[in-house]
Amino acid sequence: MAGDDSGAPDVAGLQRRLAEFARARDWGQYHTPKNLVTAIGVEAAELAEIFQWLTPEQSARVMDEEESAHRVRDEVADVLAYLLQFCEVLGVDPLAALSDKIDRNEIRFPVT
C-alpha cells in the first residue's frame, strides 16, 4: 500500500487503488461526475442517518460502541472513496483544493 514513512496510505495511492478496482470491474463507464457526486450525497446521507435521532451527548459517544463505530467508519470510507474518485475524474487535487479553501477562509474570517 502506498504511503508515507508512517505507513499511512496517501491520497494518490488510494486514488490509484480505487481506479484499478473500478477498471477491473469495468465500472468506469458509470463513474461520471454526475453519478459520483450523486453517490457522495447518498453516502453522506447514510452517514447522517446514523446520527439522525441522537442527542448531542449521544452523538459525541457514537464511537464508543463497536457496532455504531463500524457503521461510521464504513460510511466515512464510502464518502471519501466517491469524493476521491470524483476528484480523479475531474482532475481536482483534493488536498490543494482544501489548502486553497483554508487560505481563503483565513482571509475571509480573520481572528478578531
TrEMBL record:
What does the entry give for GO biological process? nucleoside triphosphate catabolic process
Pfam family, any one: MazG-like
| Entry coiled-coil feature ranges | none
Q: Which GO terms describe its molecular function?
A: nucleoside triphosphate diphosphatase activity
Question: What Gene3D superfamilies does the entry give?
Answer: MazG-like (1.10.287.1080)
Give the CDD domains listed for this entry: NTP-PPase_RS21-C6_like
Taxonomically, the superkingdom here is: Bacteria
Q: From the Swiss-Prot or TrEMBL record, give the protein name.
A: Nucleotide pyrophosphohydrolase
Question: Could you tell me which species this protein originates from?
Answer: Streptomyces inusitatus
